[in-house]
Protein backbone atom coordinates (compact mmCIF):
# COMPACT_ATOMS: atom_id res chain seq x y z
CA UNK A 1 0.00 0.00 0.00
CA UNK A 2 2.81 2.40 0.84
CA UNK A 3 4.42 1.94 -2.57
CA UNK A 4 1.07 2.53 -4.27
CA UNK A 5 0.59 5.71 -2.22
CA UNK A 6 4.05 6.97 -3.21
CA UNK A 7 3.36 6.34 -6.90
CA UNK A 8 -0.03 8.05 -6.63
CA UNK A 9 1.47 11.11 -4.93
CA UNK A 10 4.24 11.29 -7.54
CA UNK A 11 1.69 11.27 -10.36
CA UNK A 12 -0.36 14.01 -8.70
CA UNK A 13 2.77 16.12 -8.13
CA UNK A 14 3.72 15.83 -11.80
CA UNK A 15 0.23 16.93 -12.84
CA UNK A 16 0.20 19.82 -10.36
CA UNK A 17 3.54 21.02 -11.76
CA UNK A 18 2.18 20.92 -15.31
CA UNK A 19 4.85 18.47 -16.42
CA UNK A 20 5.08 15.16 -18.23
CA UNK A 21 6.86 12.18 -16.70
CA UNK A 22 9.22 12.15 -19.71
CA UNK A 23 10.52 15.58 -18.67
CA UNK A 24 11.80 14.31 -15.33
CA UNK A 25 15.42 13.17 -15.29
CA UNK A 26 15.37 11.54 -11.86
CA UNK A 27 13.54 11.41 -8.54
CA UNK A 28 14.68 11.34 -4.94
CA UNK A 29 12.68 9.89 -2.07
CA UNK A 30 12.85 11.14 1.50
CA UNK A 31 11.29 9.11 4.30
CA UNK A 32 10.71 9.42 8.02
CA UNK A 33 14.12 9.19 9.64
CA UNK A 34 14.99 6.27 11.91
CA UNK A 35 12.33 4.10 10.25
CA UNK A 36 13.14 0.74 8.68
CA UNK A 37 11.68 -2.48 7.31
CA UNK A 38 13.26 -5.80 6.33
CA UNK A 39 12.08 -7.93 3.42
CA UNK A 40 12.74 -11.12 1.50
CA UNK A 41 15.47 -10.37 -1.04
CA UNK A 42 13.97 -12.79 -3.57
CA UNK A 43 10.26 -11.96 -3.37
CA UNK A 44 10.40 -8.38 -2.09
CA UNK A 45 7.71 -9.23 0.48
CA UNK A 46 8.29 -7.42 3.81
CA UNK A 47 8.63 -9.48 6.97
CA UNK A 48 6.86 -6.89 9.14
CA UNK A 49 5.35 -3.41 9.19
CA UNK A 50 7.56 -0.33 9.31
CA UNK A 51 9.31 0.13 12.66
CA UNK A 52 9.72 3.81 13.51
CA UNK A 53 11.60 5.85 16.10
CA UNK A 54 8.45 5.82 18.26
CA UNK A 55 8.70 2.07 18.91
CA UNK A 56 9.63 1.43 22.57
CA UNK A 57 9.59 -2.37 22.56
CA UNK A 58 13.39 -2.51 22.69
CA UNK A 59 13.78 0.16 25.40
CA UNK A 60 14.98 -2.35 28.03
CA UNK A 61 17.57 -3.79 25.64
CA UNK A 62 18.75 -0.29 24.78
CA UNK A 63 19.31 0.49 28.46
CA UNK A 64 21.40 -2.68 28.83
CA UNK A 65 23.46 -1.89 25.71
CA UNK A 66 24.20 1.64 26.88
CA UNK A 67 25.55 0.26 30.17
CA UNK A 68 27.56 -2.46 28.47
CA UNK A 69 31.33 -2.72 28.80
CA UNK A 70 31.73 -2.76 25.00
CA UNK A 71 30.01 0.58 24.45
CA UNK A 72 31.80 2.23 27.38
CA UNK A 73 35.11 1.02 25.97
CA UNK A 74 34.20 2.48 22.57
CA UNK A 75 33.30 5.84 24.16
CA UNK A 76 36.50 5.99 26.18
CA UNK A 77 38.66 4.83 23.28
CA UNK A 78 37.30 7.53 21.03
CA UNK A 79 38.13 10.24 23.58
CA UNK A 80 41.61 8.74 23.96
CA UNK A 81 42.21 8.87 20.19
CA UNK A 82 41.00 12.45 19.98
CA UNK A 83 43.29 13.50 22.85
CA UNK A 84 46.40 12.24 21.07
CA UNK A 85 45.49 12.64 17.39
CA UNK A 86 43.29 15.76 17.68
CA UNK A 87 41.08 14.57 14.84
CA UNK A 88 37.50 15.65 15.41
CA UNK A 89 36.09 12.65 13.59
CA UNK A 90 37.05 10.53 16.61
CA UNK A 91 34.64 12.51 18.78
CA UNK A 92 31.67 10.94 17.02
CA UNK A 93 32.07 7.62 18.82
CA UNK A 94 32.71 9.33 22.15
CA UNK A 95 29.10 10.51 22.24
CA UNK A 96 27.61 7.39 20.61
CA UNK A 97 24.48 6.23 22.38
CA UNK A 98 21.98 3.59 21.31
CA UNK A 99 18.46 5.00 21.09
CA UNK A 100 15.06 3.46 20.50
CA UNK A 101 14.00 6.68 18.82
CA UNK A 102 15.14 10.08 17.66
CA UNK A 103 13.07 13.07 18.63
CA UNK A 104 12.39 15.87 16.22
CA UNK A 105 10.05 18.60 17.33
CA UNK A 106 7.22 18.94 14.82
CA UNK A 107 4.58 20.99 16.62
CA UNK A 108 3.59 23.06 13.60
CA UNK A 109 2.27 26.14 15.34
CA UNK A 110 2.32 29.06 12.91
CA UNK A 111 1.13 32.30 14.45
CA UNK A 112 1.69 35.50 12.48
CA UNK A 113 0.79 37.67 15.44
CA UNK A 114 1.30 36.68 19.03
CA UNK A 115 -0.92 38.51 21.55
CA UNK A 116 0.93 37.65 24.77
CA UNK A 117 4.17 39.28 25.92
CA UNK A 118 4.89 36.32 28.23
CA UNK A 119 3.55 32.89 29.15
CA UNK A 120 1.92 34.06 32.36
CA UNK A 121 4.08 31.69 34.38
CA UNK A 122 3.11 28.65 32.31
CA UNK A 123 5.94 26.24 31.48
CA UNK A 124 5.62 23.41 28.95
CA UNK A 125 7.76 20.28 28.69
CA UNK A 126 7.62 18.66 25.20
CA UNK A 127 8.18 14.98 25.94
CA UNK A 128 5.59 13.25 23.78
CA UNK A 129 8.02 10.42 23.09
CA UNK A 130 10.33 10.97 26.02
CA UNK A 131 13.31 13.33 26.06
CA UNK A 132 16.49 12.78 24.12
CA UNK A 133 19.79 14.68 24.02
CA UNK A 134 20.97 15.98 26.39
CA UNK A 135 18.43 14.56 28.89
CA UNK A 136 18.12 11.06 27.40
CA UNK A 137 15.06 9.92 29.33
CA UNK A 138 12.59 7.64 27.55
CA UNK A 139 10.36 7.71 30.63
CA UNK A 140 9.86 11.49 30.72
CA UNK A 141 6.31 12.81 30.45
CA UNK A 142 4.83 15.81 28.65
CA UNK A 143 3.89 18.35 31.32
CA UNK A 144 2.39 21.79 31.85
CA UNK A 145 3.43 23.67 34.98
CA UNK A 146 2.32 26.94 36.53
CA UNK A 147 -1.31 27.07 35.37
CA UNK A 148 -3.51 29.49 37.30
CA UNK A 149 -7.07 30.87 36.87
CA UNK A 150 -5.76 33.94 35.05
CA UNK A 151 -4.08 32.01 32.25
CA UNK A 152 -5.56 31.90 28.75
CA UNK A 153 -5.05 29.65 25.73
CA UNK A 154 -2.58 32.22 24.40
CA UNK A 155 -0.40 31.76 27.49
CA UNK A 156 -0.27 28.01 26.88
CA UNK A 157 0.54 28.49 23.19
CA UNK A 158 3.36 30.84 24.08
CA UNK A 159 4.68 28.33 26.62
CA UNK A 160 4.68 25.66 23.90
CA UNK A 161 6.60 27.94 21.53
CA UNK A 162 9.07 28.88 24.27
CA UNK A 163 9.66 25.19 25.01
CA UNK A 164 10.70 24.60 21.40
CA UNK A 165 13.21 27.43 21.63
CA UNK A 166 14.50 26.15 24.99
CA UNK A 167 14.85 22.67 23.48
CA UNK A 168 16.87 24.17 20.65
CA UNK A 169 19.18 25.90 23.12
CA UNK A 170 19.78 22.66 25.02
CA UNK A 171 20.69 20.86 21.78
CA UNK A 172 22.83 23.76 20.57
CA UNK A 173 24.88 23.79 23.77
CA UNK A 174 25.28 20.02 23.62
CA UNK A 175 26.69 20.19 20.08
CA UNK A 176 29.14 22.91 21.11
CA UNK A 177 30.25 20.95 24.17
CA UNK A 178 30.67 17.62 22.41
CA UNK A 179 32.23 18.76 19.13
CA UNK A 180 34.05 21.96 20.16
CA UNK A 181 33.11 23.35 16.74
CA UNK A 182 31.96 27.01 16.85
CA UNK A 183 29.14 28.28 14.65
CA UNK A 184 29.19 31.52 12.69
CA UNK A 185 25.42 31.25 12.13
CA UNK A 186 22.54 28.78 12.20
CA UNK A 187 20.15 27.94 9.36
CA UNK A 188 16.51 27.12 10.03
CA UNK A 189 13.74 25.52 7.98
CA UNK A 190 10.53 23.58 8.50
CA UNK A 191 7.00 24.49 9.52
CA UNK A 192 7.97 25.67 13.00
CA UNK A 193 10.52 28.11 11.55
CA UNK A 194 7.68 30.04 9.89
CA UNK A 195 7.01 31.63 13.25
CA UNK A 196 9.07 34.83 13.54
CA UNK A 197 8.64 35.00 17.31
CA UNK A 198 10.05 31.51 17.78
CA UNK A 199 13.09 31.98 15.53
CA UNK A 200 13.92 35.34 17.13
CA UNK A 201 13.72 33.75 20.58
CA UNK A 202 16.04 30.98 19.42
CA UNK A 203 18.54 33.57 18.17
CA UNK A 204 18.40 35.42 21.49
CA UNK A 205 18.79 32.28 23.59
CA UNK A 206 21.99 31.16 21.86
CA UNK A 207 23.18 34.69 21.01
CA UNK A 208 23.60 33.67 17.39
CA UNK A 209 22.43 34.75 13.93
CA UNK A 210 19.75 32.48 12.45
CA UNK A 211 19.13 32.40 8.70
CA UNK A 212 15.71 31.12 7.65
CA UNK A 213 15.50 29.47 4.24
CA UNK A 214 12.92 30.42 1.61
CA UNK A 215 12.21 26.72 1.14
CA UNK A 216 10.50 25.42 4.26
CA UNK A 217 10.82 21.75 3.34
CA UNK A 218 14.54 21.17 3.06
CA UNK A 219 14.13 17.41 3.43
CA UNK A 220 12.38 17.19 0.05
CA UNK A 221 14.78 19.66 -1.53
CA UNK A 222 17.75 17.71 -0.19
CA UNK A 223 16.42 14.48 -1.70
CA UNK A 224 16.02 16.24 -5.05
CA UNK A 225 19.54 17.68 -4.84
CA UNK A 226 21.11 14.30 -4.05
CA UNK A 227 19.22 12.64 -6.90
CA UNK A 228 20.31 15.41 -9.27
CA UNK A 229 23.95 15.12 -8.22
CA UNK A 230 23.86 11.37 -8.80
CA UNK A 231 22.43 11.80 -12.31
CA UNK A 232 24.60 14.74 -13.32
CA UNK A 233 21.93 17.45 -13.27
CA UNK A 234 24.42 19.44 -11.18
CA UNK A 235 28.12 18.76 -11.39
CA UNK A 236 29.04 19.48 -7.76
CA UNK A 237 27.83 20.86 -4.43
CA UNK A 238 29.02 24.36 -5.27
CA UNK A 239 26.24 24.63 -7.85
CA UNK A 240 23.72 23.67 -5.19
CA UNK A 241 24.95 26.31 -2.76
CA UNK A 242 24.11 28.98 -5.31
CA UNK A 243 20.50 27.76 -5.40
CA UNK A 244 19.79 28.41 -1.73
CA UNK A 245 17.85 31.57 -0.92
CA UNK A 246 17.40 33.27 2.42
CA UNK A 247 13.92 34.33 3.53
CA UNK A 248 14.89 36.31 6.62
CA UNK A 249 17.91 36.72 8.89
CA UNK A 250 17.33 36.98 12.65
CA UNK A 251 20.04 38.76 14.63
CA UNK A 252 20.45 38.20 18.36
CA UNK A 253 19.19 41.05 20.53
CA UNK A 254 21.74 40.08 23.19
CA UNK A 255 19.16 39.82 25.98
CA UNK A 256 20.21 36.50 27.50
CA UNK A 257 20.24 38.02 31.00
CA UNK A 258 16.47 38.56 30.87
CA UNK A 259 15.84 35.11 29.36
CA UNK A 260 18.10 33.20 31.73
CA UNK A 261 15.52 32.89 34.59
CA UNK A 262 12.91 31.56 32.15
CA UNK A 263 15.31 28.98 30.76
CA UNK A 264 16.35 27.80 34.22
CA UNK A 265 12.68 27.53 35.20
CA UNK A 266 12.13 25.34 32.15
CA UNK A 267 15.13 23.18 33.11
CA UNK A 268 13.56 22.72 36.55
CA UNK A 269 10.32 21.61 34.88
CA UNK A 270 12.32 19.16 32.77
CA UNK A 271 13.81 17.54 35.86
CA UNK A 272 10.38 17.24 37.49
CA UNK A 273 9.03 15.53 34.36
CA UNK A 274 11.75 12.90 34.11
CA UNK A 275 11.54 9.22 35.03
CA UNK A 276 7.74 9.38 35.19
CA UNK A 277 6.78 6.12 33.49
CA UNK A 278 7.78 2.68 34.81
CA UNK A 279 10.49 0.78 32.94
CA UNK A 280 7.97 -1.68 31.51
CA UNK A 281 5.65 1.06 30.18
TrEMBL record:
Coiled-coil region list: none
The species is: Biomphalaria glabrata
Which GO BP annotation is one of this protein's? Answer: glycerol-3-phosphate biosynthetic process
Q: Would the keyword Membrane be found if you checked this record's keyword annotation?
A: no
Q: Where is the Carbohydrate kinase FGGY N-terminal domain?
A: 10-70
PANTHER family the UniProt entry points to: GLYCEROL KINASE 5-RELATED, SUGAR KINASE
Q: What name does the UniProt record give this protein?
A: Carbohydrate kinase FGGY C-terminal domain-containing protein
Pfam families assigned to the protein according to its UniProt record, in alphabetical order: FGGY_C (PF02782), FGGY_N (PF00370)
Write the record's keywords in alphabetical order, separated by commas: Kinase, Transferase
* MF term (GO), any: kinase activity
One GO cellular component term noted in the UniProt record for this chain: mitochondrion
Amino acid sequence: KLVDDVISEAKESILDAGLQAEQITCMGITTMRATFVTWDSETGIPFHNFISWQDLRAADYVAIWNKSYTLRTLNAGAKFLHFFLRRKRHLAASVLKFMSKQVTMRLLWALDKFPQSDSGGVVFVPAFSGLQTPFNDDKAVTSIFGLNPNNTKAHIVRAVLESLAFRFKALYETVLTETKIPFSHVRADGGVANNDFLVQLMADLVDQTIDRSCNGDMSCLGAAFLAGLAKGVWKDKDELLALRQSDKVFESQHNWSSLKPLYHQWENAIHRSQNWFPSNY
